[in-house]
Amino acid sequence: MTAQAQIAPSQTGAAHVEVCNLCVTVRAPDGSALRIVDDVSFAIPRGEVLALIGESGSGKTTIALSLMGYARGGARIEGRIRVGDATLDGTESASLAAQRGNRITYVAQSAAAAFNPSRRVMEQVIEPALIHGTASDAEARRHAVELFEALSLPDPAGIGSRYPHELSGGQLQRLMAAMALITRPDLVIFDEPTTALDVTTQVEVLQAFRKVVRDQGATGVYVSHDLAVVAQMADRILVLNRGRVREQDAVRAVLETPADDYTRTLLAAARPVVKAAVPAPATGSPLLSIEGICAGYGPVDREGRAAHPVLSDVSLHIGRGAAVGVIGESGSGKSTVARVVAGLLAPTAGTVLLDGQPLARSLKDRSREELRRVQIVFQNADIALNPAHSVGEILGRVLRFYEGISGHAARARVAELLDLIRLPAAVATRRCDELSGGQKQRINLARALAAKPDLILCDEVTSALDTVVREAILELLAELRRDLGVAYLFISHDIATVQALCDEIVVLYKGTCVESGPARAYAAPPFHPYTDLLISSVPELRTDWLSDVGRKDPPRLAAPDDGGGLCRFLPRCPVAIAGRCDTASPPLRQLDSGNAVLCHRSQAELAG
Amino acid sequence: MSGTAPAARWRGPARLVAQRVVLALFTLLLVSAVIFTISGLLPGDAAQELLGQGATSEQIAALRHEMGLDRPAVVRYLEWLRAIIGGDPGMSLVANKPVAEIISERLPNTLTLAALTTLFSVPFAFLVGITSAVTRGRTTDRALNILTLAMVALPEFLVATIAVLVFSVKLLWLPSITIVPQDPTPGEFLRAYAMPVMVLGVGVIAQLGRMIRAAIIAELDRPYVEMARLKGVSQRRLIFRHVLPNAVGPIVNAMALSLSYLFGGAIIVETIFSYPGLASLMVNAVTSRDMPLLQACAMIFCATYLLLVLIADTVAILANPRLRQG
Predict the structure, then answer these.
(1) ipTM exceeding the 0.95 mark
(2) What's the CATH architecture for B6-41+72-324?
(3) What's the pTM?
(4) Where is pLDDT greater, at B272 or A522?
(5) CATH number for the segment(s) A288-522
(6) Kindly report the CA angle at A93 between A89 and A99, in degrees rounded to 5?
(7) Are B224 and A70 in contact (CB < 8 Å)?
(8) How many Å apart are CA A304 and CA A73, to the nearest integer?
(9) Do A165 and B322 touch (CB under 8 A)?
């Protein structure tokens, strides 16, 4: 027993949620018992929000779920949990399991996956109220519409009759919050509810969540790996690592005077900084030039336009050994740029030049040498790497294909590659599913490096990683660039990551390049209004950020449905000019900072 | 989108279903050519078969000419195709009766057997599949797994023979031959059909039950199921309201396969119980080289199969909101 565990109950006798010496054990594959949550104790006063913070594998979701008496995959929950008058075993009063979806509710990480695809949203939102008998069908529907309104969903009266696939991720996440609040619960558990969202959407969803939770007066548990997000939502923070509590305190105290080393690591990783100094890339003829690329999906019509156009007239240049970042929201076409360069998608117009030589539009027409020089690394190493193969086989295949080496020479090269990505040579005999997420992403990178490429296309390679691991991978990428002179086209939705690694940044909005220029120019205005929105949407490590960012100007003008060659950002632009932005297409302006922006506003106006 | 007019809402699925119908008709046309070609490859023909071994080659040639068998295959195919589209599969070469008449005597028997077997086995298959899926990995599931595997693996003639031995020979409960009297009482009817339905049903229950289990388990691993559990949804409601609507696609396709088997695949059961169905008719047509009859039977089997798959596809499209509105 720790001292903390012994005093917790007496101090917080009136607390709404009380957890004492919670342990959760699972059966490891070899049959031994594995403790994934180890002696965790905490208490939450009624109406407060506690954040559970930690990397993946820290046990934060497991703890949150055990508050509902729920354990995944046959795990065993031990210890004392009390929520209101309900306890884990329910011997004295109600059991936690019986409160699921009624007094205690849950908002899952990916609403897109957590909604049943074949049932209308309204049926699913009111289901908890109906099965627990907290309201009649008509009352529940009325309450749901009120919640939709409170959560700032469009068309509150009609949105419930949609199916999940007709709604965006941000809308579904808010609908899921409505589903969690429909029974007027005492305790709401938010499990990384905004992790899967774009930053611009995240702001809106966080604001909506905060408002309804406060209005309801519910107690909250907020699970996240993102300290900046938690700073906006929680009153107290519990820092977890490998199933153990490292620190718990008020939000401000944790952010400003962290007591634990691990907390300090987390805080440092929240804003990635790359230490490896990379010399300025050589000027001269670019390694890769993309000129006026148009591309899309679906059948191509007679004028050479795809049925679902994604990119329109995108150009960018990457110097030898340079790192160019491409940022934008989901659907902006940033991955499509990588697919066009890699030859996975043939563009409908424009050219891709490697060292001044045009590359064939499609993969099968490219020479092996051209294939070798441009490599792609995908976001999800779990999917990109064959789980049945050992690391040595995965890398060996690439060596055999491009260099025709095998046997002893290949083994030596594999060891060399593993050294390059800072993994021990013994990893070569392991299978990928035995490695951690960060290690897998390193192998994913080594697979590309094995071809000795001139250019690596990195498609959201750090997006699925925890902040601490993300920082290590970014550092590795910078070192590889310094040591090998490899160039990157680095695609990400996170501007902080791109700023840390890249020399130049291109901002895509709906397939159009709205701003491009040196990375340092993105530190301060003037920006394109969309860039401004992206940068201001990144949560900051202070508790009042969300309230500040809430006072943004709304869009000014309605745009015609087809866009009609006008600025694509017009429907969302807070600084649009009537009579100009809605009549003519925007000019490309060169700013003093070196950035080029596609906007009607002048440099002075954008700076203001 | 919810804003569109009701008529427009059905345009998407209607187009999808229309595509499937056209595809099915085209497949049927290809199948007719294949059937015609393959039946032409069988050694000997009806003329030879009718006249027996003692016939001279002149006699055979004369009869062939009379039956129109000496004309080019393409001409005979097109003529046959036109007739069969018009609903007339021609005259049986052996029985000297219209093929349509012979088939119309047998078809109701096959339909009755197939319908009874479906009614009997589909509920059991669901019971087995759902029970097995919700107890996944536990003793009940493992026992059901072994049982259904054994049922799939056992050849039908063995099951049928054992059933006859037990129920007809030892217990004397049921007749070993399925003869349905004119205007049967419900009791007579059930007694007559009990054994063939049971023997056919064993395979269908096992096969379909396993597919239903697999379809449900695939859904149970999806995040929306955990979400439903965390909403406090009961196990029964979880399966019937949340999981089954999403598993409709694979399940109806498995059902279509099982049911089409009841049509053409019942040959062993028909033979053992001397049941006058279509499958045994077709086998007789092969042995007597009665091509019009053989071809008509084959076309019926293929058309049934295509129809069942078409229905399954349509149900799957209508059950999936994404396709329904696509």
Answers:
(1) no
(2) Orthogonal Bundle (1.10)
(3) 0.82
(4) A522
(5) 3.40.50.300
(6) 75
(7) no
(8) 52
(9) yes
